[in-house]
Design a protein that fits this description.
Layout: H1 2-46, E1 60-66, E2 71-77, H2 81-84, E3 88-90, E4 103-106, E5 124-128, E6 132-145, E7 158-164, E8 176-190
Parallel strand pairs: 2-3, 4-7
Antiparallel strand pairs: 1-2, 1-5, 3-4, 5-6, 6-8, 7-8
Length: about 190
């Protein structure tokens, strides 16, 4: 009888630990989005970058909007695995919309970039920076093997979005990437 109670207590403890761990992860994901949105709002007000939390090693530098899909993503500076857990990320070596250089933005295909699967050639994308809104038009969408091809940073005003492929995969670590190439439309809307 004592043995059965001990097993029940151990199993209940393990179950409670599992539930609380997943609850913590969900709460952390939810809160991080609020803090990133607040940091971006502060950035737009005073034109200074703000970290979403004091120990963060990143900050929002832009906001990606896809009007057709009614989807928005904040773009964090620095494409590390840790930053990708919170939002889409900007490859620091790549350009920004006001530069004559490719801007490369990455995101996870099961969270912040899950909607990329619905993009089509001709769709418009918007990148809002500190001072301007830049409009892009999707020119090409391709699936590439990340071990064979590399994204090139060109002297060109373009936006490149990349995420793992296929979508809704049951495994991680795919070598395939969905790459969206969008050319900048010359009209810039000042904020």
């Amino acid at each position: 009888m004592k043995f059965n109670k001990a097993i029940i207590i151990v199993l209940l403890s393990i179950g409670l630990w599992q539930v609380s761990t997943s609850g913590y992860m969900l709460a952390k994901a939810w809160l991080s989005q609020i803090l990133i949105a607040d940091a971006w709002s502060q950035t737009l007000k005073d034109k200074q970058f703000h970290k979403p939390w004091s120990w963060a090693d990143t900050y929002p530098i832009a906001q990606l909007n896809i009007p057709k899909l009614n989807k928005n993503s904040y773009i964090l500076e620095g494409s590390s695995g840790r930053n990708l857990a919170f939002s889409a990320t900007h490859l620091p070596q790549s350009g920004m919309p006001d530069e004559n250089k490719s801007m490369i933005v990455s995101g996870h295909n099961d969270t912040h970039f899950s909607h990329l699967q619905y993009l089509q050639v001709g769709d418009e994308l918007e990148v809002k920076t500190l001072t301007d809104k830049h409009i892009y038009k999707v020119k090409q969408i391709e699936i590439v093997n990340s071990q064979v091809s590399q994204l090139l940073i060109k002297d060109k005003k373009e936006l490149i979005l990349t995420t793992c492929y296929p979508f809704n995969s049951l495994t991680t670590g795919s070598k395939q990437r969905l790459v969206v190439y969008a050319s900048k439309i010359d009209n810039i809307l000042h904020i």
